[in-house]
Amino acid sequence: VADELREIRDLPAITKDGYRLPLWVNTGLSADVARSLKQGAEGIGLYRTEIPFMIRDSFPSEQEQIESYRAQLEAFAPRPVTMRTLDIGGDKALPYFPIEEENPSLGWRGIRVTLDHPEIFMVQVRAMLRASEGLNNLRIMLPMVTSTSEVEEALRQIDRACTELQEEGYQVKKPPVGVMIEVPAAVYQTRRFARLVDFISVGSNDLTQYLLAVDRNNPRVAGLYASYHPAVLKALDFIVHEAHKERKQVSICGEIAADPGGALLLMAMGYDVLSVNANNLPKIKFAIRNVSFSRARQLLLSVRALHDAEEIHQELRQSLKAFG
Ligand code: PEP
Ligand code: MG
């Protein structure tokens, strides 16, 4: 199998009946870049910018951020690099910015923090824009969005950063901006968000946590964290449908895309891009290359008729075996 995976490294993810699905990667550490390029990644669907923030002992300056961002943008150019604005709080802590809360998952996290601290947000967005000067492969993505007002405010700030930099003489242009769908309230506003932004990306790790009311990191309830819960799949289906009504690209960067069975279902639902960890990319490509789109569609139809996460999981396992 290892040999087979190596052989397809430079081949596209294309089904037996010719359906092509772009496979991108999730990155954070600088080492992820080389690993991703080696696996034939066609873009970065999620660069977790909080990781370079986490491995330091104070907020990095604009100049320091430019250096980390430029490395990712340059290594991947002309392929797209989707940078998520700082997503701290919840399960992601910065040692020098402690947040003490009773209920951190429902508290101050993601876009909520950066909108309350425009100085942190502006420095980061300026660094992203300056890092992309002359490359034009930057995309900016907003985490943990719940309301349109948050999207509008973030867009205003990104616009302001662009104008400021242009006035300062930098050759920057406004990048595509997208929102993550991670909160149940956001699911039902997908179409509205899609009108405001250039792309939608589903953070299925958080979305699963919030739909099922199951902490993604609590071992006591880990058995209840079911990525294939029918409610999760229904939400994933709905999101694509709504975003496509506005003709916007929909990608997914949660772990469900990194599971071969999940990847086939997402492809069949119509996801335009799957973004996975570099280590999982070869097996996802292998799964796609070994199935026809019509078989994947049939699999989705049979899964939609099931009402239990475990049954769905089993159906996926059996089908994958049958596909080889
Ligand atoms: C997610 O929530 O699915 C996601 C991709 O973001 P993170 O895992 O970094 O919260
Ligand atoms: Mg998330």
Automatic annotation (TrEMBL):
One GO molecular function term of this record is:
metal ion binding
One BP term from GO = phosphoenolpyruvate-dependent sugar phosphotransferase system
| This protein's GO CC annotations | cytoplasm
Q: What keywords are annotated for this sequence in UniProt? A: Cytoplasm, Kinase, Magnesium, Metal-binding, Phosphotransferase system, Pyruvate, Sugar transport, Transferase, Transport
Q: Where in the cell is it found?
A: Cytoplasm
Similarity comment: family membership: Belongs to the PEP-utilizing enzyme family.
- The protein's name is phosphoenolpyruvate--protein phosphotransferase
Protein species of origin: Nitrincola lacisaponensis
Q: Which residues of the full protein are shown?
A: 429 to 752 of 769
